[in-house]
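ingest -> fold -> write
write: protein_1
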Amino acid sequence: MRILVTGGAGFIGSHLVSALVDRGHDVRVLDLLVPQVHGDAAPDRLPAGAERIQGDVSDAEAVRRALDGVEAVFHQAAEVGVGQSMYEIDRYVGANTFGTAVLLKALVERRDDIAKLVVASSMSIYGEGAYSCTSCDNGGREFVSPRARPAAQVRARRWEIGCPHCATGTLAPIPTPEAKPLFPTSVYAITKQDQEQLCLTVGGAYGIPTVALRYFNVYGDGQALSNPYTGVCAIFSSRLLNGQPPLIFEDGQQSRDFVHVSDIVQANLAALERDVNMPTGINIGTGVSTSVIEVAELLAEGLGEDPGVEIVGQYREGDVRHCFADISLARGVLGYEPTVSLKEGIPELLAWVREQSAADGTPQALAELTSRRLVW
């Protein structure tokens, strides 16, 4: 097939492009090559067989040109960064929400030629993950779906979430299913919800088979180590490469689901190759919860560095306490099964990291957020 990958020069996109080319597809990449992600150098991770167009997904003419002759689209293009999105609001809404609208308008014009649209969604659209109360019956519900923690609670440095139903029990995180209500807590998360729902709604209305994949915390070689708003594994690795301790908000016990980029690629390929046209997003993670401090320690140990960790003890707007995936739907619909555990993936990541150099942008990013009262 002739396939377009928007954002195809990025971390996940470049891995996906390589896999598609390996499968014999004719792949075209549309990427703006944002300096925050790519630096000053042209991307060198794309295979020779991929056609490259430097352009903005918000540019209707560039999108129409990129779609010429295309039969399937992977929409990976997005501005990424929870903290930064809270003050560069127009940039994130413009690239993510408006850019997706521009792409969809062009797709509708050639809908009879498009066999599949696969859009990258995000676990961030959930806000907090799903929980179970340790003391009651979850208020008669299957699970508890809390909203963002109240400001008074985090100002008091009480990080864990109490039960809204019995008011005495502590909530224990459980795997988050797709049925959990969406309570996004950042501008970035809202725009990812926009991307998912726009694609599913427009795809459904115009008969374009569409799949939205809700990525959890993706890591692997090729992440932008000098981008202080990228994934936590890359940010921590950059700090360690520069002899600095990873900075950890709250108390470090907040947890996430870390999924290797090769498993993200596996899910995308399955979404293309299988007869899937789901009305909801599909979780792509591992189903395993890992604390942020444990990740920092694994990275430090693997790099042979021991600067310790710096527990900031502060709250960053947009952050959630716990969220990890229920991957039952992905298993059933996509035949998806995660193949790389975190303890297997970290050494592979670090073998690549050791060969890199990185600017430590964490202090500047923290100063930006603090000056706007987004960290307190």
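write: protein_2
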Amino acid sequence: MSALFPTYPEGLIRPQKGKGSWLWDEQGKRYLDFTSGIGVCQLGHVPEEVKQKVIEQLEQLWHTSNLFHIEPQEQLANELTEISGLHYTFFANSGAEANEAAIKLARRYQQKVKKTKKYQIITFEQSFHGRTLATLTATGQEKVKEGFDPLPTGFISVPYGELDALKEALTEETAAIMLEVIQGEGGVLPADATWLVEIEKLAKENDVLLIIDEVQTGIGRTGEWFGFQHYPIQPDVITIAKGLGSGFPIGAMLGHEKTKEAFSLGSHGSTFGGNFTVTTAGLATIQTMKEKKILEHVQLMGTYLKEQLEKKLSHYPAFIEIRGKGLMLGIEWNKPVVDIIPMAKEQGLLVLQAGPNVVRLLPPLNITIEELNQGIEKIESTIKQWLDKKNVV
């Protein structure tokens, strides 16, 4: 009998070893991993460059708290502001904590810097922002909120992609608009560029902060450092986590120059956030991605993967579309895909769901063309087996 709370389903496999794009179970069976720890292992499992830097740091110092100067934290903050175009960084332990920081920053910016009483955060239906009380309230999915009443006040969700609903929701109490440019958990749904431009315009006209949740889209997943960089917009705040530390738990919130005063001395903090170990991992991850030109590789591999899957799957009547950017893709079908996950596992491939009808693919960003071809073959074989079982040609 397990001593763990049953908050997760039974594990797909019992992984014993990982390297690159592959995981091995306790029987020694090898699996091609198109989950990357839910978009965390950008450079695959146990990347050598990150491993060596972390080992060096572990020999020196692990943790002091933020009452001390942490050199790799400063260096990583500089890297992140350079690649994002923003100006300041706050380090946390997860995406939910990064989003909590963004919510707090928005309220404090409006109340302490702008001297208003604004506090409300507008988010979007089918979004996902975390599991803390504030971030699950911000999330536009009712299933994550069940049983947690009373929820914090100050959040409203409107339909994703609709401008009129957003305009109606804007009031004198609105502090920020918070969104994902590609909704990951909501079904791998990319935003319309015109809609995003209009949102940025509305935010500026109403002196409302624009917060982009880049927890899943950030750190190269879409072929740019951040998902918003595919669009002609510049957010006031972004949040990141997942892919930043190659598996070490780290999150970050980045803010524009104008938000600096909102997070003044003592206004927010974290005991573990940005310690020596995790920021060393983050720094090594970013530097390795730069040295190996990972963004260009993601653009090529993402285009190839999408084209090949469309070629092989689009003739099935149950197929709807493939959407996403870079190596963050969703394959939508006209029926629930829950059976595909274990079937793919039997083929030696690990994949995810994103909503009831979408298979989500998040392979490592440095995956090879040979590994992609193996994955494509396994996906096609799995889909044929799945549809044959359901008597769909």
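write: annotation protein_2
Residues 15-33+294-389 form a domain with the Aspartate Aminotransferase, domain 1 fold (CATH 3.90.1150.10).
The radius of gyration is 21 Å.
pipeline exit 0
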